[in-house]
C-alpha cells in the first residue's frame, strides 16, 4: 500500500504542484490519477519513487517512508513505465528489459533469462528480444516498457501515461493486456492518465485532480460516475457518464426469461444450443444477426444489443455459449436504473473505502479528505 | 616534377620509421586530447556556467598559430616529442571538447530520466547510457581531430620533430621534389587509413545506429 500523508510540493519557481495530499493507494489495486495537465498527477506519481522530492509531508510505500531509503535502491524496488516508453536506444530489447535485474546484481545470464521470460509475458516473440527499440512499433515498445518495469518483480508499478502515444486500437489492446497481467500479478499500480475512459477501464480507484494540485475526489469508478463530488468532477467525467457507468455493470443481475416461440421473430440455434440468428416466422425478411451476451458482459453492451435486435430482446448464453434465455429492453433499463440508484443512494464507499489510521481527527472518506 | 623511385627504394626503412613516428605523434595527441576532454566535457555539460568558459577557451587556444605554440612550449619541454604532442593536443581540444559536450547534450532527457527512474546511479548512467549514446558525435570529433593532427605533425619539423614533415624540409633544402611528394602521399594515406579504421571502430561500437534490418 502506498500512503500519502499531507504531502505538499512547491517547486522553486513558486508553483504549487501538489497541495496537502492525503491519499491511500490500496495494495494489489490499480489507482488511476486523472486530471488535466498541470494538475499535479504526474508530480504525485514521481514523488513515490523520489524522482521528485516532496516539500513537506510523508509518503510511505509498504509502510516505509520513501525519504528514509536510498533513492536508487528505492527505485529498483518500484517498476516504472514512462511516457513513450523511454527505452534505451542503444540496448537490445532483451537488455532493456534486463536493466533492473542487472542493477540488482543478478548476473547477465540470469537477467537475460528473466527478460526472455517477460517477452512472452507481454506478448512479444523471442525474436523481438534481439532487436533495438527503434526497430519496433510504438505498441511493441510500450510492451517492452511494461516488461522492463516488471523485470525484478517489484510489488509496485508506476505508470506515467504509458499508452498516451499509441493509436486508439493498439491502446485498447494494451489496456486489455494490462488488465490480464494485473489479474495474474496483482501489483499495486499507480497509473497516470488524462483520459477518463482509460481511467474507468483500468482503475479500481480513480483520483481526480484539479489544477493547483488539489485532489477533488477519490472513489471506485462506479461510485465516481454515479456520484461526482462536484461540478468539476462531473464536467471532467463528461456528458456520457451515465453510459460509462453502465459499461461497468455486469448483465448478471438482470432477469431473463424463456426465448419467445410464437412471436414474429424466433431465435435459430445450432445443434449445441448456441444462438445463430433471429429468423422471421414467415420468412418475409432475411435473418438478422444476434450477438449473444454472457453474464460478465456489461449493461452497456446489452443496451446496444437490444437496440440492434428486431424484438428488443437480448439472447443470453452460458460460458459455453449455449442459450440460457432472453432479457427484454425493459429488464435492462430497470437493471440500469437499479444500479444507478444503488450507487447514488447506497452506502457509498463502504465496500471500497480503504481503512487507514486517522492522521488527524476527521472523516476517513477520501473524497472528503481531498476537499478538506 | 617526377618521382625518383630509386631514392624511394633506398630510403624505404627511413620512410617506414618516419611514418610510424608521425602516426605515433598524432595518435598520442588525440588520446591525450580525449583524456583531457572527457572530464571537462562532462563538467561543461553538467555545470552550465562552465560551458561557455571551457568551450571559449578551447576556441582561443585553437586560434594561436601552431608555430607560436611550439615556440612558447620550448622553455617548458624543449626540442622533444613531448613538445610536439602537447602542441597537437591543444588543437584537438577544440573539436574533442566541443563534440563531446554536443554528444552529451544530444542524449534525450527521457532516456536519462528512465535510467534514473530504474535506479541507476549517476556515474553508471554517465558510463553506460550517456557516453554510449553520445559516441557517434564524439567519434565524429575523434575523426576530425585525428586527420587534423596527422596533417599538423609536419609543423613540428621546426622543432626538429615532425615525422614525415622532415621529408618536406629535406626536399625543399635540396631542391629535390621526390621526398616532398612521397611525404605528402604518405601523410594522405596515413590520414585515410586512420579515418577508415575509426569508422570501423565506430561501426563495431554502435550497433544500434546501423541500418534497420528488415523484420
UniProtKB/TrEMBL annotation, chain B:
UniProt-listed Gene3D superfamilies: MetI-like
Major localisation: membrane
Keywords, in A-Z order: Membrane, Transmembrane, Transmembrane helix, Transport
Location relative to the cell: Cell membrane; Membrane
Keyword Transport in annotation: yes
Membrane topology qualifier: Multi-pass membrane protein
InterPro entries, alphabetized: ABC_transp_perm/SBD (IPR051204), MetI-like (IPR000515), MetI-like_sf (IPR035906)
Stretches that traverse the bilayer: 20-41, 53-76, 82-101, 133-160, 180-205
Pfam families in the cross-refs: BPD_transp_1
Record flagged with keyword Nucleotide-binding: no
ABC transmembrane type-1 domain location: 19-198
PANTHER family according to UniProt: GLYCINE BETAINE/L-PROLINE TRANSPORT SYSTEM PERMEASE PROTEIN PROW (PTHR30177), OSMOPROTECTANT IMPORT PERMEASE PROTEIN OSMW (PTHR30177:SF4)
Family membership noted in the UniProt record: Belongs to the binding-protein-dependent transport system permease family.
Stated name of the protein: ABC transporter permease
Amino acid at each position: 500500500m502506498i500512503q500519502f500523508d499531507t504531502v505538499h510540493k512547491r517547486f522553486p519557481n513558486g508553483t504549487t504542484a501538489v497541495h496537502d495530499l492525503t491519499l491511500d493507494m490500496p495494495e494489489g489495486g490499480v489507482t488511476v490519477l486523472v486530471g488535466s495537465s498541470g494538475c499535479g498527477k504526474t508530480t504525485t506519481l514521481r514523488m513515490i519513487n523520489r524522482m521528485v522530492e516532496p516539500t513537506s509531508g510523508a509518503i510511505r510505500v509498504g509502510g516505509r517512508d520513501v525519504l528514509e531509503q536510498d533513492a536508487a535502491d528505492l527505485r529498483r524496488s518500484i517498476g516504472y513505465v514512462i511516457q513513450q516508453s523511454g527505452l534505451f536506444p542503444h540496448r537490445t530489447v532483451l537488455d532493456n528489459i534486463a536493466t533492473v535485474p542487472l542493477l540488482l546484481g543478478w548476473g547477465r545470464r540470469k537477467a537475460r533469462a528473466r527478460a526472455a521470460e517477460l517477452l512472452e509475458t507481454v506478448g512479444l516473440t523471442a525474436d523481438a528480444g534481439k532487436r533495438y527499440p527503434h526497430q519496433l512499433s510504438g505498441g511493441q515498445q510500450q510492451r517492452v516498457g511494461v516488461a522492463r518495469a516488471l523485470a525484478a518483480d517489484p510489488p509496485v508499478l508506476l505508470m506515467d501515461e504509458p499508452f498516451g502515444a499509441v493509436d486508439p486500437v493498439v491502446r485498447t489492446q494494451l489496456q486489455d493486456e494490462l488488465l490480464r497481467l494485473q489479474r495474474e500479478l496483482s501489483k499495486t499500480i499507480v497509473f497516470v492518465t488524462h483520459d477518463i475512459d482509460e481511467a474507468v477501464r483500468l482503475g479500481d480507484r480513480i483520483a481526480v485532480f484539479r489544477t493547483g494540485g488539489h485532489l477533488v475526489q477519490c472513489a471506485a469508478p462506479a461510485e465516481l460516475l454515479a456520484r461526482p463530488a462536484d461540478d468539476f468532477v462531473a464536467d471532467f467525467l463528461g456528458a456520457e457518464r451515465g453510459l460509462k457507468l453502465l459499461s461497468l455493470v455486469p448483465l448478471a443481475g438482470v432477469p431473463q426469461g424463456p426465448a419467445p416461440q410464437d412471436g414474429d421473430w424466433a431465435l435459430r440455434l445450432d445443434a449445441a444450443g448456441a444462438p445463430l440468428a433471429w429468423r422471421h416466422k414467415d420468412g418475409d425478411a432475411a435473418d438478422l444477426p444476434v450477438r449473444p451476451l454472457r453474464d460478465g458482459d456489461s449493461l452497456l453492451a446489452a443496451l446496444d444489443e437490444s437496440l440492434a435486435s428486431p424484438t428488443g430482446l437480448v439472447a443470453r448464453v452460458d460460458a459455453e455459449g449455449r442459450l440460457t434465455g432472453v432479457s427484454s429492453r425493459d429488464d435492462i433499463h430497470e437493471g440500469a436504473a437499479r444500479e444507478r440508484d444503488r450507487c447514488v443512494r447506497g452506502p457509498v464507499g463502504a465496500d471500497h473505502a480503504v481503512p487507514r489510521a486517522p492522521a488527524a481527527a476527521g472523516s476517513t472518506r477520501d473524497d472528503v479528505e481531498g476537499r478538506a | 616534377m617526377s618521382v625518383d623511385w630509386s631514392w624511394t627504394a633506398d630510403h624505404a626503412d627511413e620512410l617506414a620509421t618516419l611514418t610510424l613516428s608521425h602516426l605515433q605523434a598524432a595518435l598520442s595527441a588525440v588520446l591525450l586530447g580525449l583524456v583531457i576532454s572527457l572530464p571537462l566535457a562532462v563538467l561543461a555539460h553538467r555545470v552550465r556556467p562552465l560551458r561557455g568558459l571551457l568551450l571559449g577557451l578551447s576556441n582561443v587556444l585553437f586560434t594561436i598559430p601552431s608555430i607560436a605554440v611550439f615556440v612558447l612550449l620550448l622553455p617548458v619541454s624543449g626540442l622533444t616529442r613531448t613538445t610536439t604532442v602537447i602542441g597537437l593536443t591543444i588543437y584537438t581540444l577544440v573539436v574533442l571538447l566541443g563534440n563531446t559536450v554536443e554528444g552529451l547534450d544530444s542524449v534525450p532527457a527521457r532516456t536519462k530520466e528512465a535510467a534514473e527512474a530504474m535506479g541507476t546511479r549517476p556515474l553508471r548512467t554517465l558510463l553506460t547510457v550517456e557516453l554510449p549514446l553520445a559516441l557517434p558525435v564524439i567519434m565524429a570529433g575523434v575523426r576530425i581531430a585525428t586527420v587534423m593532427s596527422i596533417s599538423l605533425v609536419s609543423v613540428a619539423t621546426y622543432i626538429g620533430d615532425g615525422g614525415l614533415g622532415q621529408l618536406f624540409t629535406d626536399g625543399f633544402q635540396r631542391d629535390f621534389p621526390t621526398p616532398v611528394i612521397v611525404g605528402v602521399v604518405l601523410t594522405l594515406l596515413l590520414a585515410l587509413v586512420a579515418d577508415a579504421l575509426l569508422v570501423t571502430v565506430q561501426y563495431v561500437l554502435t550497433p544500434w545506429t546501423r541500418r534497420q534490418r528488415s523484420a
